[in-house]
């Protein structure tokens, strides 16, 4: 039986396509290839799922599924990676059926949200200005996320490759070190909020509100009219925070992988 990710009105698909496009520019893969409307995103230096996945961009592009799917698997294998499918409202339902029939499992549901920056209330002044020091920002992100420092070159390369104007926001103290980070990418009238992180010792101190507010203010001053972000569907605390800024759900996406692939 053919099943879609969710019921999205056809009139909303252009918005989904636009948000997907700005998302690709905000988090660029080092290798992007196309098979029809299927985008194969690969990055040898950093293992982010968004950088290493198959992303179909047209629900009607479902010809020769088996052949194209196996070709994609071979391409990912050449990078030493197992194929991961990113399912959005633009994914052909027949492709979802194919991976389900092969025993693949769905994981990591994500909600894409937007807010009107012109309508929201933000401070008139910015308490935190963006940094241009990629190394400092990456060190702060890795410290807060608890990631291995071995991925620093790959993450720094991804951030340095972002073409639209980018604000790297860091809150830190001499005693505690990094407290909160976020990355804001301003792409014409759209601004994306990425990689929000807060130190565990600073939770419930409104640090996330503080740094997101600064990033949104920066984007609005630069001319952005709408902000977007992606947050884990199960991250209820973060979703509640973003709702205070007026963020509302537009669509969701999921990942699919073979059962043999490690998490």
UniProtKB/TrEMBL annotation:
Keywords in alphabetical order, please: Acyltransferase, Transferase
Ranges for domain N-acetyltransferase: 124-262
InterPro entries registered for this protein in UniProt: Acyl_CoA_acyltransferase, GNAT_dom, Rv0428c-like_C, YpeA/RimI_acetyltransf
Give the matching Gene3D superfamilies. Answer: 3.40.630.30
**Pfam (any one):** Rv0428c_C
Per the record, the domain of life is: Bacteria
Matching CDD domains: NAT_SF
Q: What is this protein called?
A: Ribosomal protein S18 acetylase RimI-like enzyme
């Amino acid at each position: 039986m053919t099943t879609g990710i969710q019921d999205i009105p056809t009139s909303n698909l252009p918005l989904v396509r636009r948000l997907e496009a700005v998302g690709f520019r905000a988090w660029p893969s080092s290798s992007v290839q196309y098979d029809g409307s299927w985008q194969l995103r690969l990055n040898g230096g950093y293992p982010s799922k968004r950088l290493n996945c198959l992303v179909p961009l047209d629900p009607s592009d479902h010809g020769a599924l088996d052949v194209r799917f196996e070709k994609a698997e071979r391409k990912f294998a050449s990078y030493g990676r197992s194929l991961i499918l990113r399912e959005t409202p633009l994914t052909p339902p027949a492709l979802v059926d194919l991976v389900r029939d092969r025993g693949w499992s769905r994981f990591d549901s994500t909600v894409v949200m937007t807010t009107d920056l012109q309508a929201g209330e933000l401070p008139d002044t910015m308490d935190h200005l963006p940094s241009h020091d990629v190394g400092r920002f990456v060190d702060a992100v890795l410290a807060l996320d608890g990631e291995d420092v071995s991925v620093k070159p790959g993450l720094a390369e991804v951030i340095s490759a972002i073409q639209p104007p980018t604000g790297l926001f860091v809150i830190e103290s001499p005693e505690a070190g990094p407290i909160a980070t976020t990355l804001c990418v301003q792409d014409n009238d759209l601004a994306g909020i990425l990689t929000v992180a807060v130190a565990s010792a600073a939770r419930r101190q409104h640090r996330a509100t503080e740094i997101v507010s600064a990033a949104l203010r920066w984007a609005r001053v630069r001319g952005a009219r709408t902000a977007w972000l992606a947050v884990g569907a199960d991250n209820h605390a973060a979703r509640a925070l973003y709702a205070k800024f007026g963020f509302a759900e537009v669509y969701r996406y999921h990942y699919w992988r073979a059962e043999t692939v490690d998490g």
